[in-house]
């Protein structure tokens, strides 16, 4: 057997480690992207769930205040209220409006903070987030009471809460959708989340 035939026969034997190393690097890169995106999606889902559940608690608090406010407001509107009742009406109105405003402001802060925390978790694994589809403003709308015309509720626009995260690595793009949704637990409205790979 000539030396050149031996080299040609042994060449694949020496190239196999290079090929398997290249294959391993691609698989490792893809798995790393999936893990980074999963970590970011979990953080985003948890924070959005907390945010929307806080909005629901604030709505319940404002609804209870409204139950106290309506009879007092009716007494003031009738013109037979004492100065103490008028003061109580103004205090309840101020408390409802302050709770409403605080609910809107904290919802926006938590919405922004949750995305920043998610992005930081993705970047910790040396992955750069390529794109996102997420509203800059928290998807909520204010509701007004038909009796006293006060802003007394914050409703989440459930069709606009989904966030699309995407990371692009050497192998391919990896996408995930984070979808908060409403579930009812013993008649109580609660927010939960799920996430899935987007295709």
Classification by helices and strands:
alpha+beta
Largest sheet: 4 strands, antiparallel
For the terminal residues, how far apart are their CA atoms?
54 Å
Helix content: 55-70%
Rg (CA only): 28 Å
Order of helices and strands: HHEEEEEE
Average pLDDT reading: 85
Q: What's the count of strands?
A: 6
Tertiary shape: rod-shaped
Pick out the low-confidence regions: none
What's a concise summary of this model?
This protein has 199 residues and is α+β, with helices and mostly antiparallel strands.
Describe the structure.
The chain has 199 residues and is an alpha+beta fold. It is 59% helix and 23% strand. The protein is built from 2 helices and 6 strands. It has helices at 3-78, 83-124, and strands at 129-133, 140-144, 151-156, 163-168, 173-185, 188-197. A 4-stranded antiparallel sheet has the order 1-4-5-6, with helices on one face. A hairpin with a 4-residue loop joins strand 4 (163-168) and strand 5. Helix 1 (3-78) runs antiparallel to helix 2 (83-124). The model has no long low-confidence stretch (mean pLDDT 85).
């Amino acid at each position: 057997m000539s030396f050149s035939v031996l080299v040609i026969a042994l060449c694949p034997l020496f190239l196999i480690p290079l090929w398997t190393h290249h294959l391993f690097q691609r698989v490792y890169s893809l798995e790393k992207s999936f893990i980074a995106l999963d970590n970011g999606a979990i953080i985003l889902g948890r924070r959005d769930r907390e945010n929307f559940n806080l909005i629901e608690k604030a709505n319940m608090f404002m609804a209870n205040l409204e139950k106290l406010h309506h009879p007092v407001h009716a007494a003031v509107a009738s013109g037979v209220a004492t100065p103490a009742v008028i003061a109580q009406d103004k205090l309840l109105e101020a408390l409802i409006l302050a709770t409403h405003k605080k609910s809107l402001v904290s919802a926006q802060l938590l919405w922004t903070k949750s995305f920043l925390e998610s992005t930081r978790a993705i970047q910790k694994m040396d992955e750069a987030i390529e794109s996102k589809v997420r509203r800059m403003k928290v998807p909520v709308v204010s509701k007004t009471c038909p009796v006293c015309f006060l802003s007394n509720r914050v409703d989440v626009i459930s069709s606009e809460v989904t966030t699309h995260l995407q990371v692009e690595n050497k192998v391919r793009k990896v996408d995930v959708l984070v979808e908060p949704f409403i579930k009812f637990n013993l008649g109580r409205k609660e927010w939960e989340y799920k996430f899935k790979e987007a295709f």
